[in-house]
Structure prediction request, 280 residues.
Amino acid sequence: MKTTKFVSIVSTLLLISFSFIFFNGCNKDDDKSGGNLIIKITDDPFPANLVEEANVTISKIEIREKSANEGDPYIILVETPISYNLLDLRNGFTADLPEFDVPVGVYDHIRLYISEASAKLKDETTYDLTVPSGAQTGIKIFIKPYIQVQGGLTAELILDFDVNKSFVALGNINSSGGIEGFHFKPVIRAVNSSTAGRIGGTVSDTSSNYLSDASVWIEQDTIISFTITDSTGFYALIGIPAGTYSIYATKMDFDTVTYPNIEVIEGNQTLQDFILTPLE
Prediction:
């Protein structure tokens, strides 16, 4: 099958950029035979006050067409190892994967191979982590909803690492000196960007001071996505499937504020600021 060469668009999302960018491709020979697929990697971050780096090395990525039969070969997208510090990919920042050829079709899941993982604390202590055998043989991640690659168009898929669940700290996590290591248990979701939106805003106190390291998360029966505000009090949750959610924000020594019935619309930014009250 003829395919269209995909050239990665390096698009680091700045904190002030709230819109998704969609790129139209062009195949002069036959725009029905191939299309472009952008895959971005981001994370649901591990608490930043404890860890300097949460590193993973991805050795291979494969994708499967929905129409494929069990046992049919996957399409290999990446075979060259790529390393990321997942803590660099917070609050709207993403990393684009290299270029690959993508046949037109509907894809229902992706398989990710992780060869190495490590964590580095802010006191420079580094832990090389054991990668579970399941990660070494491929983590199957279902794409919800399915993603369709069409000739002459670009589709975008986000792989969202939940660092908070993937890097499980051992020992006393109240200080870096109490941490004795980590268990690495990769938790990843795959999101079709065309059906997703994002939520962003700021967290401040009652004196209008922006709060860093405040926890912000959204729920729909369970926690869907979690982040921590940056030094300016800003947060962003990206790759959120369209729907209605409850959103929460809190910080140590402050109350927890909840807003129910927050609507996320595909391709749009929902703004929600928080004001937290200090506990007496």
